[in-house]
Design goal:
Length: 1005
Amino acid sequence: MNNLSAMNDRIACDLAAEDRERGITHALVSMDRPLEYWEELSPSRNVLPPRAHARSDAPELSLDGVWDFRFSPGGDAPVDFLGDALDAQTSAEGWSTLAVPAHWQLNGFGSPIYTNRVYPFPVDPPYVPRENPTGDYRRTFTVPADWDVERVLLRFDGIDSLGTIWLNGEQVGIAAGSRLRNEFDVTALLRRGAENVLAVRVHQWSSGSYLEDQDMWWLSGIFRSVTLLGRPVGAIEDHFVHADYEAATGEGQLRVDAVVAGGAPARVRVPELGIDIAAGEVARIPVDPWSAELPRLYAGELVSEGEAIALRIGFRRVEVADGELRVNGVPILLRGTNRHDYDPDTGRVISEERMRADIVMMKQFNVNAVRTSHYPPQARFLELCDELGLWVMDECDLETHGFFPVDWFHKLPGNPAEDPRWEATLVDRMQRLVERDKNSPSVIMWSLGNECGTGQNLGAMARWAKLRDPSRLLHYERDWSCEYVDVYSRMYSTHRELNLLGQRQEAPFPDADLDARRRNMPFLLCEYVHSMGNGPGGLFEYQEIFEQYPRLAGGFTWEWFDHGLRAHRADGEEYFAYGGDFGEERHDGNFIADGIVFPDGTPSPALHELKKVFQPVAFSFVRGKTVVHNKYDHRDLSHLRFSWELHRDGVRVDGGDLAVGHVAAGESGALDVPAFDVPARSDGTAELVLTVRAVLAASTDWADAGHEVAWGQSVLVPAAGAPVESSESPRNVGDRIALGEALFDRRSGDLISLAGIEIEAPAFDTWRAVIDNDRDFSWEPRESRWRQIGLDHPRHVVHAVEVSEEGIAVRGRLGFDGSDLGYATTMRWTAAEGAVSLAVEAEPLGNWDIPLPRFGLRLALPAGFADVEWYGPGPGEAYSDSRQAARIGRWQRSIDEMQTPYMMPQENGNRIDARWLCLSDGERLLRIDAHPHVDFTVRRWRSEDLDAAQHPYDLQPSDRVWLNLDAGQGGLGSGSCGPGVLPAQAMLPATFRYAVTFRPGAASA
C-alpha cells in the first residue's frame, strides 16, 4: 500500500475512537508565557478593512526604490531610527541600503532556508525563537503639492513576515499576513508640503510563520510594492462587479455595487454595451461571455464625484450541475499547473515582465488553468490572467504543513485550523483574499489554503466566503468530507484511484450524508504528477482518465518552476542552489526542484510532454481515415490552420494544407488528407510516417501566427529492417580475431576497434543514475533494493568465445556481488561488407522481485565523436511513460545539447526507439542501425559520475564519449511525491533480445 492510500484509509476511520485508544487529548495548548507582539495570534494593528484591487484616476505615489536598511540577528534591537535624521551613533551601527521590494537574504543579509513540510523552528505555537532576524527600513518622501485629496492611505502589498510601521515618529500600525495587502490611513500623520520619514521594522518570524509553511524558500523583507494613495472627496471605497451570464439566452447581467465616501452616488458606464446606470442597478444585455479560451473583456468605468475606476468586465457563470464543473453552461476540463511567485534572482519579487512571460508560456504550452499555490499572487498577475485567458484557483495565504510530522491528523492541539483562538486570524486572511480579487473574471474558485489538516476554523472561513461571494466555488483539498466545499479535491491520487473516482466508486466516507454529498460533486486533482528531477511519467494516462469521465474536472500539475536560486562558485561558474547550499542546518535538499520549467525559464522536457498531452486538438488515424477531435470547451477550430506531411525515413516526400469544416467544441470531424502513392520500397526498409499539424492562423496576444498548437502522427508503413546476413568469416590476427572491419580480443570476445576507431568494448549495463522518483524518500523507493542487488556494479563473466564460419558467439553470465540473481547472456557477432552486426540475448536467472532501471550495453568512443544524428522519436529525451512529445523524424544535436541540466544531476537524455543513429568526429562517422529499435544515451561522463554528482558543476568531461545502446529503460513515474511507474511501463526482468549493426565510414559520405 502506498503512503497516500494508507493515509486515506486512516482518515476514513473513526479518528475520535482511535484517539481515545491512543490516549490523545484535545485540550488547547498552553499560551501562558509572555508573548512578544509578533507572537500574538492577531498581531495586526490599525489595518483598514480590505477592499477590491482597482485602477483609479486618484493620485498615487510609489515608494519603491532604495531605502536605508539595518539588519539585526534578533528582534530586540533599539527602536532608534524613527526621527527625521539618524544621530551619528545610530547611523554608524550597521546601516546600509536595500531595494524595496526585495528579500534581504538575497542581498547579503542572512541566508535563505528551504524546508518543505517542517518548520525551521520548534513547533510551539504561537512562540517563535528569540533569534528572530530583523530588518529596519527608512526612507523619506514628500507628498506632491498638486494632490487635492481628503485622505491619504499607505499600502503594503507584501511584508514577510510581519512589519511595524511608523510615520514621522508615530506608529501607524502593524502589518501581518505576508502575501496579503495591508492598508493604513496616514492622513493625520502626514506633513503636507514637507519631508516625511517612513520607518518599518520587519521580523523574519512571527505567529504568522505557523500559517505560512508553504514548501518554498523562507525569505524575508518588504518584497512587494509600497504605495501612497490619495483619496479625494467622494472617493470610491470599494466596489464589487457582478457579471453573470445566461448561456441559454446569451444574455449578460451586470450589477456593480459601490461604497462611496460620504454615501455619494456612483454610475457605471460600459460604452460598448450602451450601459449607463447607477451603481447597484442591474443591466441585462446580450454579450459575448468570458472564458479562458476566449477571454472577452468589456471596458467600462465606475465614476463617483471624486474618482473614476476602470472596469474590465468578463461575463461568466461558474456552477456545479449534474456533478460537473461548468462555466457558461459547459463542462470544463482544467489542464492546469501550480505556480508560486518566483524568480531565480529576486525570489518572490516578481516583475510584470516575468508574470506575463509565465502566462504566455503557459498558453503556448496548452496550459489553461493555474492554482496560485499557496497564496494570492500579485494583483497584476490576475489582471494578466483576465487579459490572456486562464482559469484561476486563487488560494489563501495559509498552510500549516509543519504540523504534519507531529501528527496533525489526530488534531494535535495547537494546529491553527482547529484551535478556536486562531479563528479570527484565519477568517481575516480569507477576507483579504476575496475582497482584493473579487472582480477578476479569471478567478473561478477560492481555495481556503493548503495542507492545514482539518478543523472548525476552515469551516468559519468557508461560511464567510460563501456569504460574501456565492458566485464562485470553494476548494480545500484536506476537507475530504467535503463539508465546507463545492468540489472534491485530492492530490497525487494513483491512476487506479482516479478511475474509481471518475466512476464515483471511491471508498465511502463514514458519514452517509456527507458521502452522498461528496459523490455528487465534481472531482479535481489540485496537485498531481510531481515534477521533481527527471519526470514525471504517466501524464498521458492521467489525461486519458480525465477525458473519460464527466465527473473529473482535471487538475493542476505540481509545479511550474524549479525554485533554484542563482548562485556562483568561487571561479564565477553559475549554478542554481537548492536546500542545504546556504548552510541550513535543517533543510529538504532538492525537493525545491519540482517544476516543469527550469529556473532560468527554459522549458524542461516535462513541459514539452505536458504540451502534447494537454493539446486541445487531437488526431486519430483509423483504417486510412484521419479524424480531428476538438477538445476545446468553448470554441470551434476556425482559429487554426491545418496541414499534413508525408515522410519517408524522415525525409519529406509530400504535404500540403488541409481544409477543415466547422468543428464545434467537443465535436469531431473527418480530414480529407489528399491521396498519395506510397513510394516503392526497393530494399524493404523504408518507413512512411504521416504527420498532421494544427497551428494558429493569426497572431494572438500570446503567440505569433504559425505557432503549433497540436500535432499527430501515424506510421503508415513501419520499417522492416533486419541484421545483415553474415557474408564474412572470422580470421585470426595474432592473438586477436578479425571479423569484417572489427577486431576482437580472442580470450574475452571484447570488441577492440572498428575500422580503426578505438572502442571500449560493449559491456552489459543495468544501472541508471537514480532519478528523484527512484530514491528512498519516494512512494515506491527502488534505489536501495537496486543497490542491494548490485545493479550499480554489474559483473559479466565470459564462459565461452565460440568462433564459427558465421561469426563469433560470446556466452556468459551477468551477475551481481552478493546476489544469486543474474542473466544468461549471448552476444552474436556477424559481418558483411562494410557492416558488423551484434545480436544480444539475455535470459533472467533467479527470483527477481523488482523492475530494472535499464538493460543494455555501454561502450566508449574517442572524445571527438560529439556530433549526433538519429532517426526516430525526438528531438528531446523520452522514456516509456513520457514519450508523447517525441515525434518521429531525423534529428541532429551535439553531444552537449543532448544533456538535460537537472538541478541535481540524474539520469537524462534517453532517446527512445531510435531506428538508427550516427556519431561523427568531423572526419569519421559511425552509423548504428537498430533492428528494429534501440534506446540510446550519449554523454561525456559515465553513469557513475552522473550518479555521484550533486550539482552540474560536479560533472567533468572525460576523454571518452560514453554511448548506451539499450533494450530499454524503466519508466519515470512521479514517486518522489506520488505514484510510481505503471506496471506496463516498468522494465520487468524479462528475456531481452535486440540487435544493432555498426557501419563505419567517412563523415562526408
